[in-house]
Amino acid sequence: MAIAPNQKYKDAYVDLSKGQISREIFVNEEIYQRELEQVFARSWLFIGHESQIEKPGDYFISGMGEESVIMCRDRESKVHVFLNSCRHRGMKVCRYDEGNTPVFTCPYHGWSYATDGKLAGIPYFKDAYHGEIDRTQWGLVEVAQLRIYKGTVWATWDQTAPPFLEYLGDFKMFLDLSLDSWDGSEGGSEIIGGVQKWMIPCNWKFPAENFSGDSYHNISHRSVDMVGIGPSGTGRRDMNERNQAKRLHILFPERGHHTGAYLLPKGDSTPPAYQDSPVVSEYFAHCERERRRVRGEWGRLVGSPGEIFPNTALHPRQPRTIAVWHPRGVHQTEVWRWYLVDRAAPDEVKNFLREYYIRYSGPGGLTEQDDMENWNYAHSASRGTIARRYPYSYEQGMGYERADFEVDGLKFPGLVTDLSEAKSSEDNLRNLYRRWADFMDADSWDVLANWRNGSGA
């Protein structure tokens, strides 16, 4: 299906008045190419964590949309993010996933770059170039903006994009649930192990919407619940804790971020047994008590899957992860998943969590296998000529989001749906596509940053 010039994506493909989304946005090549320019070239994207590049010369190869980028620490210990492409003929100047180096050398023609991005060497500079090329103009391409926040590294290609914390807005408190220590102290998390990476034959928006807070698909994970692989040994999650909690969806329409959350009951709660490991049980019991002491009533709030627009998923509760849905063509997604632990946690706790993360998440994890199968089949069943005529339904819970939501004296930002009453809602999913359409239609950040003029919801 050809896209008409100046086609508006809101209403034509994302009809929020009806709660319907066109399948075309998942399978159309022209729409996908526009996404790379309109969405990924203008958004703030997750790159990695400082703990992956602790020493000068350390580097980690990450991605921004389809672009390969180098996250590295230069000789002065400053963090940079560069396009992984030689300025001479475009060859990747680094083909290893991670490591340490004093210089990046292109294996094609030998141009070399220092870890601060400057062009350091050109073969036959005096003979072939007669010493005339201006090396100061041919360094590695660096991102327009970079921000390090509680150890995480974020970047955007767009100089006009709002600063990262403004981009987050009130969602910052929910990002903190992933990055702060489990006892409520500021920061203190680190990456454990490497980064899991795998390919899925589906459009990137399938996993993005699922991790926006799809509260409706638990039928997919019934076998996992029955096996009882959760940290408490009784289910996929800390079931007793969650069954007592008030479950919420929280979304921010003007920015496109959204999350789930659990508000635990007042008073002391019984922490899960964590499979009868005394050291692990005591650590989390201590953290639960300390978090409530440090943060007061807000210490009762724990996170659930959510997302920073467009493609960074957070899972603040165990398993505590950050996932990125890298687009690899209209019909394929590469998933990268980082696993977080408290830096100060005992080794026994870290080992326990590492083992649990492996069996829960990733390509070998029981829950992830369920999800991947869903996304794979949904995508392939939506590519046909007839299938593309029929939209998806996103009507669940329309109009029941509440502003100025308050419970037990805690006032929540954004729009909130109380899932303790509604059981399930597709509000977060609609929020993803609302913001996606905004990016696809808007010419500039002057339009996208509508909160600055008070026109944002």
Under CATH, the topology of the largest domain is which? Answer: Naphthalene 1,2-dioxygenase Alpha Subunit, Chain A, domain 1
Shape: globular
**Counting H and I runs of at least 4 residues, what is the number of helices?**
14
CATH superfamily annotation of the largest domain: Naphthalene 1,2-dioxygenase Alpha Subunit, Chain A, domain 1
How would the blueprint of this fold be written?
Blueprint: H1 9-12, E1 14-15, E2 20-21, H2 24-27, H3 29-40, E3 45-49, E4 58-64, E5 67-73, E6 79-83, E7 98-100, E8 103-105, E9 112-114, E10 119-121, E11 145-149, E12 152-156, H4 164-168, H5 172-179, E13 189-191, E14 196-200, H6 205-210, H7 222-227, H8 239-244, E15 246-252, E16 257-263, H9 278-295, E17 301-308, E18 312-315, E19 321-327, E20 333-342, H10 347-360, H11 366-380, E21 392-393, E22 402-403, E23 406-407, E24 410-411, E25 415-418, H12 419-422, H13 427-441, H14 445-448
Antiparallel strand pairs: 1-2, 2-21, 3-12, 4-5, 4-7, 5-6, 8-9, 9-10, 11-12, 13-20, 14-20, 15-16, 15-25, 16-17, 17-18, 18-19, 19-20, 22-25, 23-24
